[in-house]
Amino acid sequence: MAGDRSTLRAVVAEDQPLLRDGIASLLELGGFEVVGRCENADDLLLKVRSYAPDVAVVDIRMPPTFSDEGLQAAAEIRSRHPGTGVLVLSQHIEPEHAARLVASDASGVGYLLKERVRDGESFIDAVERVASGGTAFDPQVVAALVAGKGHTAGERLSEREVQVLSLMAEGLSNAEISKRLFLSPRAVERDISAVFAKLELPATDAHNRRVLAVLAFLGIRRAREQA
């Protein structure tokens, strides 16, 4: 997480003017520099190309069809501009969109319900995590993914390890997970180590292992080399 938000640049894409300006103002109050405000996907992509922001906050449904233009634009940003994190906002819980968004990489990506914007400081923290290469998945989306059929992580992990992994997907730090679950820091460290071991994650740096764990949590598998 960045220590100085004033160094982080953001673009906001939302077709409703009041909400767009409200999000932009909230980000500015939180210390971000808002370098672009967009009402459609084409303008969003233009501003990302022009300003190379640290993060784009994107409404999932935008003109002209209000289906998934925002999601498609977010996917293009992640493909063509990997230095820009993407935080998608949705009116409803749609776990399949979260899975589409991460593709094979969960770094610098978030998926929140629009109602989370009301909780100003938590929303700002989520944007900052995504801008700094972390994750921020909505607790309700996480809960839906856990409850969904075919959730492979649950086959290997204990109930508490799944809880810890789901909070990692929300973007919480070890200290925050400890407080949320009323566990000691040592207990959380042991559970996270167990998650890494059971998911057979490589011994890379801690941040990358957390990202890989989130991918496993979402049920996404990287292509394996053929024997």
Topology:
Elements: E1 9-13, H1 17-29, E2 33-38, H2 41-51, E3 55-59, H3 69-80, E4 85-90, H4 95-102, E5 109-113, H5 120-131, E6 135-137, H6 139-147, H7 153-156, H8 159-170, H9 174-181, H10 185-198, H11 206-217
Essential attributes:
globular; 227 residues; disordered C terminus; alpha/beta; Rossmann fold; 2 domains; 11 helices; Arc Repressor Mutant, subunit A; six-stranded parallel β-sheet
Q: H/E series, N to C?
A: EHEHEHEHEHEHHHHHH
- Count of β-strands: 6
Total tally of structural domains? 2
Name given to the CATH architecture of the largest domain: 3-Layer(aba) Sandwich
CATH topology description of the largest domain: Rossmann fold
Radius of gyration: 17 Å
- Main beta sheet strand tally, sense and closure: 6 strands, parallel
CATH superfamily of the largest domain: Response regulator
Short account of what is shown:
The protein has 227 residues and is an alpha/beta fold.
Question: Can you describe this structure?
Answer:
The chain is an alpha/beta fold. The protein has helices spanning 17-29, 41-51, 69-80, 95-102, 120-131, 139-147, 153-156, 159-170, 174-181, 185-198, 206-217; strands spanning 9-13, 33-38, 55-59, 85-90, 109-113, 135-137. The longest helix is centred in the last third of the chain and has 14 residues, at 185-198. The protein is globular and about 45 Å long. The termini are far apart. The model is unreliable at 220-227 (pLDDT under 50).
